[in-house]
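Problem: given the chain below (334 residues), write out its structure.
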Amino acid sequence: MLTSLRPRLSAAMAATAAAVVVACGSATAQKVDYSVVQVPEETGVEFIKVTKPSDYVAMPTVKRRSHNADWTVNRILGISHDGTQLAYLSLRNGATNIFLKDIDKQGSAVQRTNRSNVQDFTFSPDGKFILFSETRGKSTQLFRTDATKGYICRQITTGDRDYSPIYSPDMKQVFFTRLEQRGSSVWGHDVDKNFLASYVPGMSPYPVPGEKSLVISRFNGEGRGEIWKVNYETGAEECIVADPVHSYTTPSVSPDGQWILFVGDGRIPMGKREFVNTDLFACRSDGTQLTQLTYHAADDLSPVWSKDGRYIYFISQRGDAEGTPNVWRMNFNY
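Solution.
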Protein backbone atom coordinates (compact mmCIF):
# COMPACT_ATOMS: atom_id res chain seq x y z
CA MET A 1 0.00 0.00 0.00
CA LEU A 2 1.29 3.48 -0.85
CA THR A 3 1.60 5.43 2.36
CA SER A 4 4.21 8.12 1.71
CA LEU A 5 4.17 11.83 1.01
CA ARG A 6 0.53 12.57 1.71
CA PRO A 7 0.39 16.27 2.64
CA ARG A 8 -2.82 18.09 3.43
CA LEU A 9 -4.01 20.04 0.40
CA SER A 10 -6.81 22.59 0.61
CA ALA A 11 -8.21 24.48 -2.38
CA ALA A 12 -11.34 25.35 -4.33
CA MET A 13 -11.88 25.14 -8.08
CA ALA A 14 -14.85 26.06 -10.27
CA ALA A 15 -15.11 22.78 -12.17
CA THR A 16 -18.34 21.99 -14.02
CA ALA A 17 -18.25 18.24 -14.50
CA ALA A 18 -21.08 17.61 -12.01
CA ALA A 19 -22.87 15.30 -14.43
CA VAL A 20 -20.77 12.37 -13.26
CA VAL A 21 -21.45 12.94 -9.56
CA VAL A 22 -24.79 12.06 -7.99
CA ALA A 23 -26.08 12.60 -4.47
CA CYS A 24 -26.10 9.48 -2.32
CA GLY A 25 -27.90 9.28 1.01
CA SER A 26 -26.78 12.01 3.40
CA ALA A 27 -26.35 15.65 2.61
CA THR A 28 -22.57 15.28 2.31
CA ALA A 29 -22.19 11.90 0.58
CA GLN A 30 -21.56 11.64 -3.15
CA LYS A 31 -21.10 8.78 -5.57
CA VAL A 32 -19.02 9.04 -8.73
CA ASP A 33 -20.25 7.41 -11.93
CA TYR A 34 -16.89 5.90 -12.83
CA SER A 35 -18.27 4.20 -15.96
CA VAL A 36 -18.10 7.55 -17.80
CA VAL A 37 -14.90 7.74 -19.86
CA GLN A 38 -14.90 11.50 -20.36
CA VAL A 39 -17.03 14.54 -19.68
CA PRO A 40 -18.09 17.40 -22.01
CA GLU A 41 -15.27 19.67 -20.80
CA GLU A 42 -12.83 17.10 -22.22
CA THR A 43 -14.24 17.19 -25.77
CA GLY A 44 -11.48 16.93 -28.36
CA VAL A 45 -9.28 14.77 -26.15
CA GLU A 46 -8.91 11.07 -26.93
CA PHE A 47 -8.66 8.79 -23.90
CA ILE A 48 -7.28 5.27 -24.41
CA LYS A 49 -7.11 2.69 -21.61
CA VAL A 50 -3.67 1.06 -21.61
CA THR A 51 -4.08 -1.49 -18.79
CA LYS A 52 -6.85 -3.81 -17.65
CA PRO A 53 -8.17 -4.77 -14.19
CA SER A 54 -6.03 -7.91 -14.12
CA ASP A 55 -2.92 -5.67 -14.17
CA TYR A 56 -3.78 -4.62 -10.59
CA VAL A 57 -2.55 -1.06 -11.04
CA ALA A 58 -1.78 0.58 -7.69
CA MET A 59 -3.79 3.74 -7.11
CA PRO A 60 -2.37 6.70 -5.18
CA THR A 61 -4.43 7.28 -2.06
CA VAL A 62 -6.92 10.16 -2.03
CA LYS A 63 -8.64 11.07 1.24
CA ARG A 64 -11.52 13.52 0.97
CA ARG A 65 -12.52 15.94 3.67
CA SER A 66 -15.33 18.46 3.77
CA HIS A 67 -13.35 21.17 2.01
CA ASN A 68 -10.10 19.60 0.81
CA ALA A 69 -8.37 16.37 -0.14
CA ASP A 70 -5.14 14.60 0.72
CA TRP A 71 -3.36 12.58 -1.96
CA THR A 72 -0.07 10.75 -2.41
CA VAL A 73 2.31 12.59 -4.71
CA ASN A 74 4.64 9.69 -5.58
CA ARG A 75 5.55 9.04 -9.22
CA ILE A 76 4.37 5.50 -9.91
CA LEU A 77 4.29 5.49 -13.72
CA GLY A 78 7.16 5.53 -16.21
CA ILE A 79 7.85 5.16 -19.92
CA SER A 80 10.87 3.17 -21.11
CA HIS A 81 13.78 4.86 -22.87
CA ASP A 82 12.59 3.74 -26.32
CA GLY A 83 8.98 4.67 -25.55
CA THR A 84 7.60 1.16 -26.14
CA GLN A 85 6.98 -0.01 -22.56
CA LEU A 86 4.91 1.26 -19.68
CA ALA A 87 6.16 0.75 -16.14
CA TYR A 88 3.67 0.88 -13.29
CA LEU A 89 3.27 -0.17 -9.67
CA SER A 90 1.10 -3.21 -9.18
CA LEU A 91 -0.41 -4.43 -5.90
CA ARG A 92 -0.39 -8.24 -5.89
CA ASN A 93 -0.38 -10.67 -2.98
CA GLY A 94 -0.08 -7.84 -0.51
CA ALA A 95 3.08 -6.39 -2.09
CA THR A 96 3.69 -3.46 -4.45
CA ASN A 97 6.24 -4.01 -7.23
CA ILE A 98 7.24 -2.53 -10.57
CA PHE A 99 5.81 -4.23 -13.65
CA LEU A 100 6.47 -3.56 -17.35
CA LYS A 101 4.16 -4.11 -20.30
CA ASP A 102 4.27 -3.23 -23.99
CA ILE A 103 2.18 -0.14 -24.66
CA ASP A 104 0.89 -1.24 -28.08
CA LYS A 105 0.21 -4.87 -27.15
CA GLN A 106 -2.32 -6.47 -24.84
CA GLY A 107 0.06 -9.14 -23.56
CA SER A 108 0.96 -9.95 -19.99
CA ALA A 109 3.18 -7.75 -17.84
CA VAL A 110 6.69 -8.62 -16.69
CA GLN A 111 7.64 -8.16 -13.05
CA ARG A 112 10.79 -6.05 -12.64
CA THR A 113 11.24 -5.93 -8.83
CA ASN A 114 10.70 -8.57 -6.19
CA ARG A 115 10.25 -6.43 -3.10
CA SER A 116 7.47 -5.93 -0.56
CA ASN A 117 6.53 -2.24 -0.56
CA VAL A 118 7.90 -0.19 -3.48
CA GLN A 119 6.70 3.41 -3.17
CA ASP A 120 7.75 5.16 -6.39
CA PHE A 121 10.29 4.97 -9.24
CA THR A 122 11.77 6.56 -12.39
CA PHE A 123 13.82 5.35 -15.37
CA SER A 124 17.40 6.53 -15.84
CA PRO A 125 17.99 8.85 -18.85
CA ASP A 126 19.87 6.10 -20.71
CA GLY A 127 17.13 3.56 -20.03
CA LYS A 128 19.45 1.06 -18.35
CA PHE A 129 18.29 1.44 -14.75
CA ILE A 130 15.24 2.03 -12.60
CA LEU A 131 15.55 4.04 -9.40
CA PHE A 132 12.96 3.29 -6.73
CA SER A 133 12.12 3.77 -3.07
CA GLU A 134 10.92 1.01 -0.78
CA THR A 135 9.43 1.14 2.70
CA ARG A 136 10.64 -1.52 5.11
CA GLY A 137 9.34 -1.16 8.65
CA LYS A 138 9.63 2.50 9.60
CA SER A 139 12.33 3.33 7.02
CA THR A 140 12.09 4.20 3.33
CA GLN A 141 15.30 4.01 1.29
CA LEU A 142 16.44 4.35 -2.32
CA PHE A 143 17.59 1.54 -4.61
CA ARG A 144 18.70 0.99 -8.20
CA THR A 145 17.95 -2.05 -10.34
CA ASP A 146 18.46 -3.11 -13.96
CA ALA A 147 15.61 -1.94 -16.19
CA THR A 148 15.59 -5.02 -18.39
CA LYS A 149 16.64 -8.06 -16.37
CA GLY A 150 16.97 -9.61 -12.95
CA TYR A 151 15.99 -8.59 -9.43
CA ILE A 152 19.45 -7.54 -8.18
CA CYS A 153 19.27 -4.15 -6.46
CA ARG A 154 21.88 -1.70 -5.22
CA GLN A 155 21.01 0.39 -2.17
CA ILE A 156 21.69 4.12 -2.61
CA THR A 157 20.64 5.77 0.67
CA THR A 158 20.26 4.67 4.27
CA GLY A 159 18.04 7.53 5.41
CA ASP A 160 14.82 6.99 7.30
CA ARG A 161 12.39 8.53 4.80
CA ASP A 162 13.74 8.98 1.27
CA TYR A 163 11.43 9.07 -1.76
CA SER A 164 11.03 10.10 -5.39
CA PRO A 165 14.53 9.40 -6.79
CA ILE A 166 15.43 10.73 -10.23
CA TYR A 167 18.70 11.03 -12.15
CA SER A 168 20.11 14.30 -13.44
CA PRO A 169 20.33 14.30 -17.27
CA ASP A 170 24.06 13.48 -17.13
CA MET A 171 23.42 10.76 -14.50
CA LYS A 172 26.02 12.24 -12.17
CA GLN A 173 23.43 12.99 -9.48
CA VAL A 174 20.39 11.27 -8.01
CA PHE A 175 17.93 13.82 -6.67
CA PHE A 176 15.29 12.77 -4.16
CA THR A 177 12.89 13.89 -1.43
CA ARG A 178 13.83 13.40 2.21
CA LEU A 179 11.10 13.77 4.83
CA GLU A 180 12.37 15.38 8.01
CA GLN A 181 10.88 16.57 11.29
CA ARG A 182 10.15 20.03 9.96
CA GLY A 183 8.99 19.05 6.50
CA SER A 184 10.52 17.81 3.27
CA SER A 185 13.72 18.76 1.46
CA VAL A 186 15.30 18.01 -1.90
CA TRP A 187 18.61 16.18 -1.60
CA GLY A 188 21.21 15.01 -4.09
CA HIS A 189 23.47 11.95 -4.14
CA ASP A 190 26.73 12.41 -6.04
CA VAL A 191 27.14 9.11 -7.91
CA ASP A 192 30.93 9.29 -8.41
CA LYS A 193 31.94 10.77 -5.04
CA ASN A 194 29.25 8.91 -3.09
CA PHE A 195 28.16 11.76 -0.82
CA LEU A 196 24.87 13.46 -0.03
CA ALA A 197 23.95 17.14 -0.08
CA SER A 198 20.80 18.98 0.97
CA TYR A 199 19.58 21.61 -1.51
CA VAL A 200 16.24 23.29 -0.84
CA PRO A 201 12.92 22.75 0.95
CA GLY A 202 10.43 20.91 -1.26
CA MET A 203 9.66 17.56 -2.82
CA SER A 204 9.24 15.64 -6.08
CA PRO A 205 12.31 17.03 -7.92
CA TYR A 206 12.33 16.87 -11.73
CA PRO A 207 15.36 18.01 -13.79
CA VAL A 208 14.91 20.67 -16.47
CA PRO A 209 16.44 19.62 -19.83
CA GLY A 210 19.55 21.60 -20.73
CA GLU A 211 19.77 23.39 -17.37
CA LYS A 212 21.23 22.85 -13.91
CA SER A 213 17.75 23.31 -12.51
CA LEU A 214 14.97 21.33 -10.90
CA VAL A 215 11.22 21.83 -10.90
CA ILE A 216 9.83 20.92 -7.49
CA SER A 217 6.64 21.23 -5.47
CA ARG A 218 6.62 23.14 -2.22
CA PHE A 219 3.91 23.89 0.34
CA ASN A 220 3.27 27.39 1.61
CA GLY A 221 2.32 28.35 5.14
CA GLU A 222 -1.35 27.70 4.44
CA GLY A 223 -0.71 24.18 3.17
CA ARG A 224 -1.27 24.84 -0.53
CA GLY A 225 1.07 23.25 -3.03
CA GLU A 226 3.10 25.46 -5.38
CA ILE A 227 5.42 24.70 -8.30
CA TRP A 228 8.94 26.15 -8.05
CA LYS A 229 12.08 26.13 -10.18
CA VAL A 230 15.45 26.05 -8.42
CA ASN A 231 18.99 26.16 -9.78
CA TYR A 232 20.95 23.55 -7.83
CA GLU A 233 24.31 25.18 -8.63
CA THR A 234 23.56 28.86 -7.90
CA GLY A 235 20.65 28.41 -5.47
CA ALA A 236 18.41 30.80 -7.43
CA GLU A 237 14.69 30.11 -6.90
CA GLU A 238 11.61 31.10 -8.88
CA CYS A 239 7.95 30.43 -8.13
CA ILE A 240 6.33 29.12 -11.33
CA VAL A 241 2.73 28.41 -10.26
CA ALA A 242 0.92 29.50 -7.10
CA ASP A 243 -2.72 30.23 -6.38
CA PRO A 244 -4.62 31.57 -3.36
CA VAL A 245 -7.07 28.65 -3.41
CA HIS A 246 -5.59 25.90 -5.63
CA SER A 247 -2.91 23.34 -4.74
CA TYR A 248 -0.48 21.76 -7.21
CA THR A 249 2.01 18.90 -6.82
CA THR A 250 4.17 16.34 -8.64
CA PRO A 251 5.57 18.38 -11.54
CA SER A 252 7.28 16.87 -14.60
CA VAL A 253 8.86 18.71 -17.52
CA SER A 254 8.03 17.88 -21.15
CA PRO A 255 10.83 16.34 -23.26
CA ASP A 256 11.33 19.62 -25.12
CA GLY A 257 11.41 21.60 -21.86
CA GLN A 258 8.52 23.85 -22.92
CA TRP A 259 5.76 22.57 -20.61
CA ILE A 260 5.31 21.51 -16.99
CA LEU A 261 2.70 18.86 -16.15
CA PHE A 262 1.29 18.46 -12.63
CA VAL A 263 -1.63 17.38 -10.42
CA GLY A 264 -4.07 19.85 -8.91
CA ASP A 265 -7.13 19.67 -6.69
CA GLY A 266 -10.66 20.65 -7.60
CA ARG A 267 -14.22 20.94 -6.36
CA ILE A 268 -17.20 19.96 -8.44
CA PRO A 269 -20.28 21.92 -7.33
CA MET A 270 -23.49 20.03 -6.53
CA GLY A 271 -25.99 22.68 -5.52
CA LYS A 272 -25.05 23.51 -1.94
CA ARG A 273 -22.54 20.66 -1.79
CA GLU A 274 -19.17 20.07 -3.43
CA PHE A 275 -17.17 17.03 -4.44
CA VAL A 276 -13.39 17.26 -4.06
CA ASN A 277 -11.21 15.47 -6.62
CA THR A 278 -7.83 15.65 -8.39
CA ASP A 279 -7.20 16.66 -12.02
CA LEU A 280 -4.28 17.19 -14.39
CA PHE A 281 -2.89 20.62 -15.29
CA ALA A 282 -0.11 22.02 -17.45
CA CYS A 283 1.58 25.35 -17.98
CA ARG A 284 4.43 26.81 -19.99
CA SER A 285 7.86 26.48 -18.40
CA ASP A 286 7.65 30.12 -17.30
CA GLY A 287 4.27 29.59 -15.60
CA THR A 288 2.15 31.19 -18.32
CA GLN A 289 -0.78 29.55 -20.13
CA LEU A 290 -1.95 27.58 -17.10
CA THR A 291 -4.38 24.99 -18.49
CA GLN A 292 -6.65 22.43 -16.87
CA LEU A 293 -6.42 19.20 -18.86
CA THR A 294 -8.95 16.88 -17.17
CA TYR A 295 -12.33 17.50 -15.49
CA HIS A 296 -13.64 14.03 -14.62
CA ALA A 297 -14.93 13.46 -11.07
CA ALA A 298 -12.66 10.41 -10.89
CA ASP A 299 -9.18 11.09 -9.52
CA ASP A 300 -6.54 11.63 -12.21
CA LEU A 301 -3.04 11.17 -10.77
CA SER A 302 0.65 10.34 -11.39
CA PRO A 303 0.94 11.83 -14.91
CA VAL A 304 4.01 11.24 -17.10
CA TRP A 305 4.94 12.37 -20.61
CA SER A 306 5.40 10.13 -23.62
CA LYS A 307 8.91 10.32 -25.07
CA ASP A 308 7.76 12.55 -27.94
CA GLY A 309 5.66 14.81 -25.70
CA ARG A 310 2.48 14.12 -27.69
CA TYR A 311 0.73 12.08 -25.00
CA ILE A 312 0.23 11.96 -21.26
CA TYR A 313 -0.14 8.72 -19.29
CA PHE A 314 -1.91 8.82 -15.94
CA ILE A 315 -3.82 6.71 -13.41
CA SER A 316 -7.59 7.06 -13.06
CA GLN A 317 -10.71 5.07 -12.12
CA ARG A 318 -12.59 6.59 -15.07
CA GLY A 319 -14.19 4.23 -17.57
CA ASP A 320 -14.74 1.39 -15.10
CA ALA A 321 -18.11 0.98 -13.40
CA GLU A 322 -16.46 -0.51 -10.31
CA GLY A 323 -13.95 2.32 -10.03
CA THR A 324 -10.97 0.04 -10.66
CA PRO A 325 -7.83 2.09 -11.36
CA ASN A 326 -6.12 1.74 -14.73
CA VAL A 327 -3.49 3.57 -16.73
CA TRP A 328 -4.92 5.87 -19.40
CA ARG A 329 -3.37 7.77 -22.27
CA MET A 330 -4.57 11.17 -23.48
CA ASN A 331 -3.30 13.35 -26.30
CA PHE A 332 -1.66 16.68 -25.49
CA ASN A 333 -3.06 19.25 -27.90
CA TYR A 334 -0.88 22.28 -27.16
